[in-house]
Amino acid sequence: MYESANVSDDADRTAFRRAEKKYKLYYEQDSKFSRKKKLPKPIDLSELLDFNLILQNFNEKGLLPDGIRVSKIDSSRVFCLENRPGFYFIPGALSLEEQCKWIKESLTNFPQPPNRTNHNAIYGPITDLFDSAKENKVLVQDDLTNNKWNFCEEDIAKAKHRSCKSVSASLLLRKLRWSTLGLQFDWSKRNYDVSLPHNNIPDALCQLAKTHAAIAMPVGEEFRPEAAIVNYFGLGDTLGGHLDDMEADWSKPIVSMSLGCKAIFLLGGKSKEDLPHAMYLRSGDVVLMAGEARECYHGVPRIFTDEENAEIGALESELSHGSGHFIAEYIKTSRININIRQVF
Ligand SMILES: O=C(O)CCC(=O)C(=O)O
Ligand SMILES: [Fe+2]
């Protein structure tokens, strides 16, 4: 899965790689070394599919761009691409309230053991990362021989653990890149390890995934959410072109929810030589990939964290009213993606 996200093998050679480079965040050469604020290089956004605009044009004028089809499921419009069967885009599928709920869960509960995160490999299982970051705590290595790490107050950490390795919880939260729910994915073996301890995916998330997955399910079958990967993106983070091919039955969709800052999503073809479609993903959008679309390379070359482009004004104010300032501050410069899978 993510090993193929290492795209150094094909340098500039493929259409997919060229699109990634086109949209990735680069800084203006001379701003890097000057004392002025680093300036992002401008990019050409004219070829991006914007499903918000497409939806608006369809609602107001009944117009659709070539190659795009639309259907209505309950109260939502679902868009499809004629040359990518099995791909579905549901703009604004999640209400503001739902977005807030899943952002909060992604930061507080989803990274809790037995769920694993990218930090496991270095620190072992760590609990209460979010609360510890909020309380300015520090993770210190209490037991060198057993590589045991625990959070403690900043001043205690300074006094007691002068000789120990330590890292601030807020840095660890900033560097959180993924957590896994349900059946745990073993990145080193590139497979699901059913022997690892795990909790089921929370019921409310299962229900949400089932509802959206229904659009892409074979007739008469119900989606079984068995595993999920939560991706966390900060400024400059990307997800390289890859396939999700570790699930047994590709006729079942991957249900992918976007939260927080706006992103660019690339949907390529079965070969990296195929020219990818580039599209915006906004907070609340849901994408499904099923059937043939499961064989299509895809990735996220860019997230927008600046106020003008992130498009999270409403989300931010909703969050700062409900869940508190800390989550709103985090999401201002972050994107979270929850993608839910049926493994067997
Ligand atoms: O972040 C996204 O929108 C896509 C995530 C993805 O493709 C994955 O986790 O496999
Ligand atoms: Fe993926």
UniProtKB/TrEMBL annotation:
Residue ranges annotated for the Fe2OG dioxygenase domain, each copy included: 224-344
From the Swiss-Prot or TrEMBL record, what is one GO molecular function term? dioxygenase activity
The entry's free-text remark on the cofactor is:
Binds 1 Fe(2+) ion per subunit.
Q: Which cofactor does it need?
A: Fe(2+)
Sorted keywords for this record are:
Dioxygenase, Iron, Metal-binding, Oxidoreductase
Is Iron given among the entry's keywords?
Answer: yes
Q: Which residues bind Fe cation?
A: 242, 244, 298
- Which PROSITE patterns does the UniProt entry name for this protein? FE2OG_OXY (PS51471)
Q: InterPro entries recorded for this chain?
A: Alkb, AlkB-like, AlkB-like_sf, Oxoglu/Fe-dep_dioxygenase_dom
Q: Its family?
A: Belongs to the alkB family.
Protein name (database record): Alpha-ketoglutarate-dependent dioxygenase alkB
Organism source for this protein? Cardamine amara subsp. amara
Lineage of this protein's species? Eukaryota, Viridiplantae, Streptophyta, Embryophyta, Tracheophyta
